Amino acid sequence: MDSKEDNYLAEGVDRLQIVADDVDPSISPIKITMSPKSPRSPKSVHGKHVTSKGSPVKHDRHSHSPKDGRPKKGGSGGKGTWGGILETGDDNTVDPNDPNYDSNEQDNSHSNSTKPLGVFDEYKKKATVIVEEYFATDDVVSTANELRELDMPEYHYYFVKKLLSMAMDRHAKEKEMAAVLLSTLYANVIDPPQLYKGFSKLVESADDLIVDIPDTVDVLALFIARAVVDDILPPAFLTKQLGLLPKDSKGVEVITRAEKSYLSAPLHAEIIERKWGGSKNKTVEDVKTNINNLLVEYIASGDKMEAFRCIKDLKVPFFHHEIVKRALILAMERRASEDRLLDLLKEAAEEGFINSSQMTKGFGRLIDTVDDLSLDILSARDILQSLISKAASEGWLCASSLKSLSLQKQKQIEDDTARVFKLKAQYIIQEYFLSGDILEVISSLESEKYNSSSELSAMFVKKLITIAMDRKNREKEMASVLLSSLSLPADGVINGFMMLVESADDTALDIPAVVEDLAMFLARAVVDEVLAPQQLEEIGNQLTGQDSIGSKVLQMARSVLKARLSGERILRCWGGGGSSRPGWDIEDIKDKIGKLLEEYDSGGELREAFRCIRELAMPFFHHEVIKKALVAVMEKKNERLWGLLERGFSVGVFTPDQMMKGFGRVADSLDDLALDVPDAEQQFTRYVERAKAASWLDSSFPATRYVIQNGACS
Q1: Do 688 and 701 form a contact (C-beta atoms < 8 A)?
Q2: Single pTM value for the model
């Protein structure tokens, strides 16, 4: 068997030798490792040191020959080896006199040997040392020089990853130092693709990092948000990474946290910048002072490059709007320097030192404060308008995205009016809860014409019910009575309730029972005809979020209104009339209505009559007042009570719907009334015509008797 293998092997060597004779000597030799099954292999089982099973002699793997049988470095073996396959024994040194000599080949061979296979491991070690030294010295310049000296820019992504991963496990000081270092090295030492790759690697390894750093998700999310704010990482990084990461990985949590918790928050740039103490712990006032100094220096020297260098050294790209604002103010104060300052802003915009959003924000901030600035610069508004026109005409400002200066003054007036009204409304409501004087509230609102504005009416409704919900049943009942007594614009009332429903989630933090209370206020408003049922549905249609507290409020309000005898139950839920009693029976109400009409007819005051009507707190039952008053007018032929109806309709105590019901009920009882008043039908016809002329009744209301069912004529 061994002899056959030797023959096959010898034959193979002969064939290889033939091939080698035909090969171009310039081709580098190829090495083939021999199979361990070869009889000449050092690992062959046929060696002399092999012992049988159970032999006490140990197998010795080392050769006892004084000569090293391993291949020579760069060669193809020593004594007893075959050498390299296709090796012809010729010298492999490149001969410059050879016709096939290529100088580039020798250069490439030499350059490849300068970076051994372990160069990345060497870079890792040096990068770790550089990071440690940076945290100890806080020397940005020295760190940048050391990275350059490594001369391995293709591995800088590892430096980014190592820097941040080490900072994540340290204090806020080191985290801030890491963020500052990356912002400084970006583009100058570390190429943008390398930094992008470093962050990608870090996000991918979030699942491993969290084992040693429990708050990895939050800290890494903040590093990513900081990089976006510092303009060294594009915002698109977030969406791209989400598409590459497994859905259940910690990396997805990191990206989501960065986007929703940090980058979506109001004033997020300032918050993120100050999260770890800020760059070198600079305060906002320090930055403002530096900005003012660099602008003043620029006005004196006119050196734009120096100004841009100072802007870059501030390392506050999110605060560049302050540079714009301050430059504009200086231009308004020092008219001789206007062109120079505008030229600086123009070139800063064109060169990308100040982006368009910061430019717009700077102009916008100045528009907001132009009224205060006018105290020192009388023509501030006109000057600012001219500056905006110049910037827009030169193409470095989008004027259409700015607020209008003419409208800004009007808006300021409106804001001041709303603020003053809120204070007055709160005072009026508190006084009302103490006195219960509805007419005083009406007088206060009418004196300032607040009740004619839909916006202010909505504010009043919201304020009234919000205060009442935080008090006892007495105040809740009083609020409902007041709301049904006021003649507020319908849009204002609807918007007021809409605001209440939308803010229910926030209100619940202070008033836990907001669902029950607000639902009852809505239902009571429908019963009192302050809101129409379809308006309640409109509020529901405009509400977003089915799981919100506002949705629960509307759902409960609808349920309460659908219940049997809902009107009476809703009216008595808070005791009725602002008292602690459970409410009056219908007969009691009728008796009180009769007495107040008799008192007024006998010489009582109109104001007192309306006070008594409102204290009944049953506006849905005002048709009984109208019926009794009209019957009394027809019986006594005394129109004093007609004047009560006339005044009541004009001030909103009696609604058209209640008028319709009241006149309809009189029409239904004409047969009985004719027994005491023979000309009752003729009088009724005459009064119907007068009511139509006064717009109390619709023109379709029949002047003759008709049947009324559920408030509708047939």
Answers
A1: yes
A2: 0.34
